[in-house]
Amino acid sequence: MKILLFLFAFSLSFGTPYILSGQNSIEQNPSSFFKFDSGSLVYTHDEKGNRLPDFSFVGYHSGEKPLPNVAVQMTLNPIVGDNTLQIQEALDQVAKLPLDDNGHRGALLLKKGVYNIAGTISIKQSGIVLKGEGDDENGTVLVATGYGDQKYKRNFFEVGNTDKIKLDASSFQEITDNYVPIGTHSFSIKSIEKYKVGDRIVVYRPSTKSWITAIGCDTIAPRWAEIRNIDWVQNTNNKKSGFYYKRVGYDTPYSILQKKDETWEDFQSRIPLSDDGKSFDFTKQWEPGDYDLYFERKITNIQGDKITIDAPIVHAMESEFGGGGIYHFTTLNRIGEVGIENLRLISEFGEPTKDNPYGSSKEQTTSEQHAWNGIVLNENTENTWIRNVTGNYFGWSLISAKGKKATIQDCVNLGHASEITGGRRYPFMINGQLNLVQRCVTFEGRHEFVNQEKTLGPNVFVDCIGFQSKSNAGPHHRYAVGNLYDNITSEKPMESRYRGNSGTGHGWAGTQTCFYNCVAPEFLVEAPLGGISWVIGSSDNSDKKVQPKSLYYQQVQDRLGSEVLKYLVSEEQLNAMGSYPWVKNRLSKEDAKFQRLFP
């Protein structure tokens, strides 16, 4: 109880949360969209057939299999100096082993000790697990060395590649329904001739000009800022024709390139410069085609011209805005069954000091040229996992999940080293689809639990907490759809709303966002035309929480049964939802600044 009272102490002094009512948002009253009767959920539908989606299909094998314990095939001990090559060569050796019936080759075990790593470690083949002997200071500690030079600003670990799916254009079938509602699993297509049960498909939702206009994302207000290093480049062999510049206060170079069939005069006229040529309008209006959505699904049933898919539709498809369709697709070089577990990841960020071997506390809010992301699960990955990983001092994220069906669980981000501004301090970041983040804790994050541009749901954050929050949690920019925040606690507001000309024109950050039994000082929630967002049992304290304790875990139990639910959460953890007793266990071996959280 002492832990519970402390963890929520910050939320008791903020007053009543402000909920921003959007065009189509639904607020607070759970009986409007489900009943919890006899231990299971019964959903209601609005007049268009929209309902709260089933978010239970996320994570490793959609939660239908437990995370595996893969047998160790190779073992390493740390060596003096740079360990990049010995670890990479060992992983490449494991990659040559045959796959077993479960798709696993084996694990590389890194024994306890400190491994200095100057480069990036990559896993490019399926079935490989990298594991250590513990994520505390006395376990397996991997240090991303190097700072003070742009070459050190890197991903520490990368899994898979960024190859895109390839659509089979000849397989396209138009969806014939005038309206496909949010939360549904079925719709009709023009012809089922090329499709059968078991097919993996893409459900396509176009971004037409009429839709972008309807949601106000082609009239985002301009945002002017000074620029420098201006360079107009035309007809050279060494550099593409275009406009090159840097933004004042930033080191990142930017460019706008001339289009293939565009005259130089037309190109110059579309560059948004001020009359004096010193300021630039950074707002990017949404363009038709740039926000097309491609949801990966599987056909589970066909009746007549109606197909049923496994995971739900999380964005309405309306004939007036272009409707939708389905495709067959291929995934070249996609990898899966990769895990990273039981490790401590640290980024050096400055000269060692008496108090900290990784950098001075004075530099922790200024250091930029060092390891930027801890682990990146790239776009072309599926059925992967990260568990029991603790990290510190990365500039942007500890874990970035860009692929499909990843489970990130029981991980701790102890802090960051970077400026406290945009594009930094997003410790747990979901950019892909059907991903799960559970029982994770973070410190000093700007956007602690966050989605990025065109993040396709369902995705779920559940039973997570942020301390020393620097900015809001939730969908961040340019349209994340179908995300559940379940029992998330933050010291800053949680939001899913129209962000207008924030950044370079965020527009709508997200829609079909559900905040369930969350605690934050405010909830800033709205939805665009045709969208819905939900705020259920969420407020500035824990008194307004509703039953069931967790929407996600209840949906898993309803779909798969209580025995399968045990793969994901223990009975003790489920009963303690929202009080985070596991945080004490995870942080008990850390230094005093973390231990003080617990009386």
What would you say about this model in short?
It is built from nine helices and 40 strands. With 599 residues, the chain is mainly beta.
How many helical elements? 9
Instruction: Kindly provide the name of the CATH class of the largest domain.
Output: Mainly Beta
Instruction: Assign the CATH architecture of the largest domain.
Output: 3 Solenoid
Mean pLDDT: 92
Low-confidence parts lasting 5 or more residues at pLDDT below 50? 1-23
Q: What is Rg? A: 24 Å
The 3D shape can be described as: globular
Main β-sheet, in a few words? 7 strands, parallel
Strand content: 25-35%
Strands of the biggest beta sheet: in what spatial order? 7-10-25-27-30-33-35
Number of domains: 3
Q: The CATH topology of the largest domain is what?
A: Pectate Lyase C-like
- Helical fraction equals 10-25%
Q: Kindly state the number of beta strands.
A: 40
Category by helix and strand content: mainly beta
Question: How far apart lie the N and C ends?
Answer: 11 Å
Question: How would you sum up this structure, described in words?
Answer:
This protein is 10% helix and 34% strand. The protein has a 7-stranded parallel beta sheet with strand order 7-10-25-27-30-33-35. Strands 26-28-31-34-32-29 form a 6-stranded parallel beta barrel. The model is unreliable at 1-23 (pLDDT under 50).
